[in-house]
């Protein structure tokens, strides 16, 4: 969790923007995971409870050593984190992306765990193998042991 984040893979950011756009006007929320210091994976809660906000559903996801933070959308288009957002940020890593309507490549921002804006480079890399799902399988699988 203390690892330095070099940036986000362009494909991962594209995925976030597309999913946020298709969720509109509802909120989309997921967790971010890194491979070798680059954000390459987004995990989304399978069961979205309709009684709580999309952001609150994130607390149901397993935290892995590769978890670096969260991502969620603001259908209003505002990119500032709310007080509830910052409470989530403080509990789950140091890299939190908010994407806003109209979900284009400029309508997003990244924040640290106390809600200060931080820089996040978009990197053109090939995503080969995800370390994340391997870890989660090792933790929660166990069929082969
Ligand atoms: Zn929010």
Short description:
This protein is of the alpha/beta class.
Small molecules held by this entry = zinc ion
Question: Fraction of residues in helices?
Answer: 10-25%
CATH architecture: 3-Layer(aba) Sandwich
In the residues, how many domains can be counted? 1
Uncertain segments are: none
Write out the CATH superfamily name: Cytidine Deaminase, domain 2
Shape: globular
Read across the widest sheet, the strand sequence of neighbours is 7-6-5-4-2-3-1-8
- Cα gyration radius (Å): 15 Å
Q: What class, by secondary structure content?
A: alpha/beta
Largest sheet: 8 strands, mixed
The number of helical elements comes to 3
Write up this protein.
There is one protein chain. Strands 7-6-5-4-2-3-1-8 form an eight-stranded mixed β-sheet, covered by helices on one side. The two termini are about 25 Å apart. The longest helix has 14 residues. It is α/β, with parallel strands linked by helices. Bound molecules: zinc ion. The site of zinc ion has 7 residues, from β4.
What is this structure's SSE topology?
Elements lengths: L6 E3 H14 L5 E7 L2 E6 L23 E8 L8 H7 L5 E6 L7 E4 L5 E2 L3 E2 L7 H10 L5
Parallel strand pairs: 1-3, 1-8, 4-5
Antiparallel strand pairs: 2-3, 2-4, 5-6, 6-7
Which keywords apply here?
145 residues; Cytidine Deaminase, domain 2; 8-stranded mixed sheet; 3 helices; 8 strands; 21% helix; binds zinc ion
């Amino acid at each position: 969790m203390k690892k330095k984040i070099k940036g986000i893979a362009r494909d991962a950011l594209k995925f976030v923007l597309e999913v946020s756009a298709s969720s509109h006007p509802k909120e989309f929320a997921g967790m971010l995971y890194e491979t070798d210091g680059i954000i390459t994976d987004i995990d989304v809660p399978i069961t979205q409870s309709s009684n709580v906000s999309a952001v609150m559903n994130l607390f149901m996801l397993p935290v892995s050593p590769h978890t670096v933070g969260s991502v969620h959308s603001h259908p209003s288009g505002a990119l500032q984190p709310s007080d509830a957002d910052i409470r989530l940020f403080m509990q789950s890593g140091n890299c939190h992306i908010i994407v806003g309507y109209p979900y284009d490549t400029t309508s997003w921002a990244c924040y640290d765990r106390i809600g200060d804006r931080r820089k996040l480079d978009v990197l053109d890399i090939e995503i080969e193998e995800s370390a994340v799902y391997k870890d989660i399988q090792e933790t929660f699988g166990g069929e082969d042991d």
